[in-house]
């Protein structure tokens, strides 16, 4: 059956996505403060990792789930969002948004391939609305934002990884959300290290200790006040409402990302963005309101 708090969970996921629409602001602030390229993202992953490490060591001694045993979830979801965070620094914000938020398409394809789950009418309607909304916002001068630089490819790849991670979360069993959270940050950190090796100069020079010290309060605020709580929702919710619906609702980031960049970064914002955002909002409402009550997936235990 559908989760008894289905609508509340959907609302929380929508609001988390909306907050992520403003995430580019602290990323750019950290970059201006000396944490260039992907080093800010790496720091934001390492801080929660350090905070979770004592609990993880205690669990290891107690022979409980630590999170190390979930490499696919960590690499897919943690690595995917790390790639997305870095893409915001390496390409235009709007291009990163559109390429990452092709995620509902990948999620639906993965559901068909791995769960033999045919898309229902509400999903088909939602995807059509999503695609039209994206086209309205981004198909300017008859040109679509196909990948053509490192940031673009990171954004596209991050959407595929995040979709795979959300799918994996539907079937995994865990005794503790904290274990999945540790997996997210541990394997996500490994992905950021790999990006630093692969992309070299694009990743930016290693920041000096003075820049790191000056930016530490903002890093702590982002990591502890935003990333940890929002990632708990990201990890917890797909098993409750399904990966497909999750990937539709999280599109609220595009709506608020487009609005925030239009107002604060002098990016275009007008009738095109209003119509496109409205279509994507309608896509989420269709999926939430028309979702059958007998599709609730087996839940994770926190």
Question: How would you characterize this protein structure?
Answer:
By secondary structure, this protein is mainly α. The chain has one domain (6-290). Helix content is 74%, strand content 0%. α4 runs antiparallel to α8. It is globular. It starts with 5 loop residues before the first helix and ends in a 12-residue tail after the last helix. The model is unreliable at 295-302 (pLDDT under 50).
Task: List the keywords.
mainly alpha
How would you concisely characterize the structure shown here?
The chain is mainly α and 302 residues long.
Topology:
Elements: H1 6-20, H2 24-32, H3 39-61, H4 71-90, H5 93-100, H6 103-115, H7 121-138, H8 150-171, H9 177-199, H10 209-236, H11 238-241, H12 243-249, H13 252-264, H14 271-290
Helix pairs in contact: 1-13, 3-9, 3-10, 4-5, 4-8, 4-9, 5-8, 5-13, 6-8, 6-12, 7-14, 8-12, 9-10, 13-14
């Amino acid at each position: 059956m559908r989760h008894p708090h289905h609508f509340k969970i959907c609302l929380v996921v929508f609001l988390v996505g909306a907050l992520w629409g403003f995430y580019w602001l602290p990323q750019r602030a950290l970059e201006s403060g000396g944490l260039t390229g992907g080093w800010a993202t790496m720091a934001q992953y390492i801080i929660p990792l350090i905070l979770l490490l004592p609990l993880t060591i205690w669990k290891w001694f107690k022979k409980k789930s630590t999170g190390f045993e979930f490499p696919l979830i960590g690499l897919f979801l943690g690595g995917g969002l790390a790639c997305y965070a870095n893409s915001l620094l390496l390409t235009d914000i709007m291009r990163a948004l559109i390429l990452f938020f092709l995620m509902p398409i990948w999620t639906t394809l993965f559901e068909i391939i791995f769960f033999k789950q045919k898309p229902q009418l509400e999903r088909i309607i939602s995807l059509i609305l999503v695609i039209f909304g994206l086209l309205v916002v981004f198909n300017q001068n008859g040109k679509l934002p196909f990948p053509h630089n490192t940031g673009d490819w990171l954004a596209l790849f991050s959407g595929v990884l995040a979709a795979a991670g959300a799918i994996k979360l539907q079937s995994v069993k865990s005794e503790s959300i904290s274990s999945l959270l540790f997996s997210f940050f541990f394997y996500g950190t490994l992905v950021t290290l790999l990006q630093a090796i692969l992309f070299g100069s694009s990743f930016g020079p290693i920041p000096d200790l003075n820049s790191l010290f000056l930016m530490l309060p903002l890093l702590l605020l982002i990591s502890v006040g935003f990333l940890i709580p929002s990632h708990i929702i990201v990890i917890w919710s797909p098993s409750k409402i399904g990966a497909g619906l999750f990937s539709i609702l999280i599109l609220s980031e595009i709506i608020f990302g487009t609005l925030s960049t239009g107002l604060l970064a002098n990016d275009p914002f007008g009738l095109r963005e209003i119509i496109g955002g409205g279509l994507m909002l309608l896509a989420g409402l269709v999926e939430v309101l028309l979702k059958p009550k007998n599709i609730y997936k087996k839940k994770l235990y926190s």
